[in-house]
């Protein structure tokens, strides 16, 4: 997994970088094929903004969070990504179960044809 942390008109300190990397590595529990993670940090007036962009295979997840502290913004953005991933996995799982429920059972239909 490649993690890129940049700051727009902001110097990213080693403490801030390690905080963001630690939070991003926690996403490994939910994502298996993460290729690239981009974290962009900037300040708008008195708001500290963090944007997280995650690429996992053919899927993209993006979250923007703002608060009065940069550390809190990073935490919120990662939490939003986590919710998106859980929702996405739920949709994939639900789609698979619906597909298997709708598929006709071939053995039962063949047995009925033979019995007739």
Write out key terms for the chains shown.
116 residues; alpha+beta; Double Stranded RNA Binding Domain; 4-stranded mixed beta sheet; 32% strand
Textual characterization of the structure:
The protein has 116 residues and is α+β, with helices and mostly antiparallel strands. It has a single domain (2-84), classed as Ribosome hibernation promotion factor-like (Double Stranded RNA Binding Domain), CATH 3.30.160. It contains three helices and four strands; from the N terminus they run βαβββαα. The chain has a four-stranded mixed beta sheet with strand order 1-2-3-4, covered by helices on one side.
User: Could you please say which CATH topology applies here?
Assistant: Double Stranded RNA Binding Domain
Low-confidence blocks of residues:
none
Give the second-level CATH assignment, the architecture: 2-Layer Sandwich
Radius of gyration, Cα only, in angstroms?
Answer: 22 Å
Number of strands: 4
CATH superfamily: Ribosome hibernation promotion factor-like
* Main β-sheet description: 4 strands, mixed
Mean pLDDT across residues: 84
The geometry reads as elongated
Contiguous helical run count: 3
Strand content of the residues, in percent? 25-35%
Structural class: alpha+beta
Tell me the name of the CATH class.
Alpha Beta
Domain module tally = 1
N-C termini distance:
59 Å
Helix share bin: 40-55%
Strand order of the largest sheet: 1-2-3-4
- Which H/E pattern describes the elements? EHEEEHH
